[in-house]
Each structure stands twice: as C-alpha cells, then as structure tokens.
Amino acid sequence: MQARGRADDLYAVLGVEPSATAEAITSAFRARVRELRPDTRVDAATAERFGEVRAAYDTLRDPVRRAAYDRGCARARGRGRVEAPLRGRRAVPP
Description:
By secondary structure, this protein is mostly helical. The chain has 4 helices and no strands. Helix 2 (22-36) packs antiparallel against helix 3 (44-60). The chain is globular, with a radius of gyration of 14 Å.
C-alpha cells in the first residue's frame, strides 16, 4: 500500500489549508491551471499533475463531497493512519 503522498492530500494539491473558503479553493485551482496549461505543455508529468489538480478541485468545490473527504481523513487520522478515503466502497474492518 502506498503511503499518503501529496496527490492524496487534496488540499496540498491545490496549495490551500483545510480551512480554506470556497473562493480560496477556486482561486488556487485557477492559479494551478495557469501554471500547468495543458494546451502549451504536453509532457506526461504535466498532464498527470493537471489531472490531480482537476480531481482535487472537483472534490473540494462541492460542499457535500468536501465534507465526506474531510470525514474520511479524520477517521484515518483517528486510526493512526493517514490515507485517502474510499470512494463508494464500504470499508472492511482490519
């Protein structure tokens, strides 16, 4: 199992704090998109990074999805592990 990296922490991907407002999240997303412009940079690493930024924004801009992500992260921290929450799957107890 891979340790939680930068791509798994959606707030870090956008460069905002977990307490960021919706406006701050949108602003950070737009700044990252300007840096990673997929129409001018064609390498695989940039395309992958752009996908991570887009996925982070899609989750954090929606209040319901953001709350679910935050709850999943809080549960993971409570178990002593920090990992991204499961999407649409029930967690199996260890």
